[in-house]
## 1
Amino acid sequence: MTATEDSFTNWKTREEIAESMIPIIGKLHRERDVTVLLHSRSLVNKSVVSILKTHRFARQIAGEELSVTETLPFLHALTALDLGPSQIDLGMLAATYRSDERGLPVADFTAEAVAGATGANKTERRESRDVVLYGFGRIGRLLARLLIEKTGSGNGLRLRAIVVRQAAGQDLVKRASLLRRDSIHGQFQGTITVDEANSRIIANGNEIQVIYSDDPTTVDYTAYGIKDAILIDNTGRWRDREGLSKHLRPGIGKVVLTAPGKGDVPNIVHGVNHDTIKPDEQIISCASCTTNAIVPPLKAMADEYGVLRGHVETVHSFTNDQNLLDNYHNSDRRGRSAPLNMVITETGAASAVTKALPDLQAKITGSSIRVPVPDVSIAILNLQLGRATSRQEVLDHLRDVSLTSPLRRQIDFITAPDAVSSDFIGSRHASIVDAGATKVEGDNAILYLWYDNEFGYSSQVIRVVQHVSGVEYPTYPAPAV
C-alpha cells in the first residue's frame, strides 16, 4: 500500500468512527441533557467532518495527538453510566487519563472522573425556562439561533416570544427570512415556517410568538402562556435600572441587557464574575462584546503575573450604529461612511473592567477604531505586569488557561501563522489569543485578541442566561482552578 493509499484509508477509518459517535452524542443530549464537548467545543448536532476538524484543532492547540480513536472509548463509557444533566468534555477526559499513572481501565476512570454527575450525585432535570427576546436585530437573531439550538430535550431554555415594532408589509415573513439567512453567519441550521394567522415563527419545532409593541409596559406576557421568563433586551434603548424595570411585567421574572449597564446595574462577564449575581437580582447587564473579549485574558494575566496598568486598543468591525454613506449622526465621526473609512471612536470597555474585576487595582485605558469589515474585531491589550516573564511562559500559560481552566469557554488559543479576521466568524469564545502576534519583553506583554463581536458575544449572553435560569449544568472533569 502506498503512502497516499494509507493516508486515505486512515481518513476513511476516522470518518467511520466519527459517524458512529453522532447517534451516541445525540441520544445523550436528548434523553439525559448531557452535552458532549471536546476542549469546550460542543459536539452536539455536528457533522462527521466537523467532529474530525474539532479533534484536529484540539490536538493542534494542546500540542499532543488527539484522535477519535482515543475519545470514542470514553464516549462508550459514558453510555453505561447513570448520568444526569451535565457537560462532559472528552478532550479533558483523554488528557487527564494520559497523565493518570494508575493504569485504570477507561470505563473505571471515566466513572470516577464524572462521579459528580452520576447516581445519587446527579443534578435533577429542571423544568424548561421561558425566554423572551425584546428586539430582533443582529444580536437578537443570533440569540434566537443559539436558543433554538440549545432547546435539546426541552428541559433547558425555551424561546417563547419576540417583541418588535410592527413594520409595514409582510413584517413576519421578512423577520423569518432574516433569521433563515444571514450574510455573515450563513444559513439557519434547520427548518423555519411562518404562521401568519397566529403571528408565529416555527423554528425546528419551536413555536415563537411574535408580539408587536413599542412600549414594554403594555405587554401582558401571561396572555401568551409565558411565565417567569427571562427577557433579553437587545435593543440598547434602556440601560439603567429605571428603564429596564419597565420590562418587569406579568410573566417576566428577570431582565438581561445586551449592552453595558448604567448606574447600579451589575455588568456580568460569564466566566469571570457570573457567580456574583444575587439570586434575587432581577436586572443584569452582559456588558459589551469588547469587555467580554478583554476581561477574561486580563484576569488570566493578573492572576498569574499581576497587572500594574494597561491600555486596550480595539480594531472593531463596523455596526448598524454607523452610517452606510456620509450622513447626519449624533456622533462626530460615526456619520461618515462605515464601509469606506477607518473611524476613530470611543469605547467604554476599559472603564467597564472595574465593574467585572473590582479587585484589579490597575488603571486600564482604551480607545477604538471602527474598520470596514462587517464582523470580527481584534483587541490589542498592552500590559505592564507585576513581574518580568518571557514570551514562551506567557504563551504556555494562556494555552493552559484555554484548555484546562475555568476560563476555557471564554478564552481560545490559536497558533496558525496565517490567521485573519474572517477565520473567527462563528467562534463561540469571548476572545482568541493569537500566539504568533504575542509580544513579551520583561514586564511588558502585548496580547492580540480576536473576537467575533456578534456570535462570540451572543454565546456569552446565553451562558449568563443559562446561569441565572438554573440550567447551566456542571462540567466534568472539573477544570483546574
Note: The chain has a mean pLDDT of 92.
## 2
Amino acid sequence: MKSAAIMHTILLVDDEPEILTVWRVILEMEGYGVVCAGDGVEALAKVESGHVDLIVTDWMMPRMDGGELCRRLKAMPEFANVPIIVHTSSRPPEGNGANWQDCLRKPVDAIVFLTAIAALVKDAGNK
C-alpha cells in the first residue's frame, strides 16, 4: 500500500521509543515524512516549528498526555484542522471525540493503521 506521490508529514507522539521507531519505519516506507515526539510538550513544539498534515498520539504519556495535547491543538486556530488519531492501549474518556478523528487500540494491525492514516490525509487534502 503506497501513498500518493505528494509527501505528507505525520507527527507521531508516544513515550515508548520502540513504538515510535516501528511506526516511523513503516510510514517512511509508505512515502510519508515522519516527525517524532516523546510527549505532548515536545509534540506542541514540533507542530509549532514545522508543518504536519496529521498527528498520531498516544493517550497516556508523562508531562502532557494525549487528551491535553488534543485540546490544546484544537484551541489553536492554525492547528485546529489538523486531523488527529489517538493510538492507545486504553480507551480515551467518552465525550472528547470532537478533539480527534479516529481512535486505534494498541496493538493495531499495520494495514488498519495505514488505512486510517491514508483516509485522514486524503480528507484533510480535500478541505
Note: The chain has four helices and five strands.
## 3
Amino acid sequence: MDKTDQPRRQRGQRTDLQFTVSEPVELMGFLIAQLPHKNRNNIKSLLSNKQILINGKVYTQFNHPLIPGQEVTVLGNRAPETTQYRGLTILYEDSDLIVINKQAGLLSMATNKEKIRTAYSILSDYIKKENPKNRLFIIHRLDRETSGVMMFAKSEKVQRLMQESWNDTTKQRTYIALVEGVPKPKRGTVASYLRESKALIVYSSQNPDYGQLAITNYAVQKSTSDYALLELELETGRKNQIRVHMQDIGHPIVGDTKYGAQTNPIGRLGLHAEVLSFEHPISGKLMQFSAPVPKSFLSMMKVQE
C-alpha cells in the first residue's frame, strides 16, 4: 500500500519511524496499515501524545486526510515535558541551544525602554542558576507582539555557526498570520526588496538596488468574509518581512497599525511562529519544534461558521 523508509533517527532508546504516503487515505487507516503490531487504542495514544507528524507538523486528528507524497513520522518517544516561565515556555534544551515558545508581549532582547523582563534576561537568569559563568547568545529575534518558536545559543561559537549558515541549515520556518480580508489567489508568493528607514519602518520595492531580497510564500487555511488565517513559509528571514509583504498584497496582519491594519479584533498582532526546523550546529541532526496556534487566532475563524 505504501512505501516505508528506514528508521529516521534515534531518540533515547526508541527509533522514530518514517513512512511515505502513496495514495489518498485517512490518517488512522494509514497508521493501522503501517503499524500492524499496534491496535486502534495504541494508535490513538500516539496521536494524543503528539507522536504523529505529517511533513514535520504534529497532528492529533485520527481522520485527517493524507495525500500522496506526504511524509508521516511516528516518534519513538513522547515529547519531553516543557518548562514554563512567565512569558515563555522552554521547549528544548541541550548543552548548545535553548528553544522556546515566546508569548506575545515579551521582548526578545533589551531595548532602551525595557531592560529587565525580556526572553533573553529570563533565560540568562535560568542558565546562571546552574553556573554563574554560563552565558546566553541570541540567534534570531521575534517582534515583541509576535509569539512562537525562537532559539538561543549557549556559546558564541554556536551563535556564529547558526547565524553564518542560517539559510542553509534552517529547513523550515512556518508562520501563521491572521489578516484582514481574504487574499486572492488563495495561494501565492510575494517577493520584493526590503530596506529599513531611520524611523525603523521597513519599506518594500521591486528595485534590486533598493534593499535585500525577501520571499514569502502564503496559503489561505481558513477564512470568513472579513478575515483569513494564512500559513506562511519564509525563504528569507528579513526584519518585518511578513508584516510588510502582507501590506503589499493589501491584506495587513490584524493589529499591525504600523503596516496598514485597520482592525485589532484579538488585542494583539496576529502573527505566530509555528514551526522551526534546522540542522543542529554541532551534531548535524535535524531538529524540529512547533508552538500551537493561539486560540484567539482560531476563534476568529469560528465567528461566522
Note: The chain has two domains: 3-74, 83-302.
